[in-house]
Amino acid sequence: MTDFTRHTPETAPAGEQLAQIRKGWGFIPNLHATLAESPTALQGYDTLFGLVGQGTLTPAEQQVAFITASRINECEYCVSGHSVLAGAARLDAASIAALREGTPLPDAKLDALARFTAAVVEQRGRLSEAQVEAFLAAGYSRAQVLEVVLAVATKTISNYVNHLTKTPLDAFMAKTAWTAPSRRAA
Question: According to the lineage, what is the superkingdom (predicted)?
Fold first, then answer.
């Protein structure tokens, strides 16, 4: 098995980037420490993540998209981490639980966002006109259609990196650890 180093600012080719991440987060998440092996990969992920935050989806809506994409991609690291971030974004516990299990959310608009995000991931963006119209009818905009794609792209990077490198959970994720359905029976 190939081992990937979890870098520090002192060991990383992207040392200054990691120092900035530590300054912003208060620590260096294991995902970022792993991505630091490639300064361009770390910058790409960090830039996309930041751009999602600049869009028109609320912080709670961003977390709905992030958790949905991560659940479908079975990324245990990202579902666990974004469950914490969703709580910080004031998403209620029932909605977080529904997102983690792929069941309907109590809020109809957020449920439409989760269903739309799931369709984007599962259908690789090849949605029907009716699916797009249903998302718009739920109160979202055409710009938000594209912002969901941006959120999915962001999570695709982190989900795939976590699968490839077997990124361990960070300490703050202990209470929200999640096991992918395909691994539950094992």
Answer: Bacteria
Residue range(s) defining the domain that contains residue 149: 15-176
Q: What digits encode the pLDDT tens for the residues 134-178?
A: 999 999 999 999 999 999 999 999 999 999 999 999 999 999 999
Instruction: Decide: pTM greater than 0.85.
Output: yes
Q: What is the CATH number of the domain that holds 108?
A: 1.20.1290.10
In a domain, 186, yes or no: no
C-alpha distance across the termini of the chain, in Å: 20
Residue ranges in the chain whose pLDDT is less than 50: none
* 143, amino acid identity: A
Residue 84 · residue 59 · CB < 8 Å? no
- Please say whether the beta carbons of 18 and 12 come within 8 A: yes
CA distance 177 to 171: 10
The three-state secondary structure class of 62 is: helix
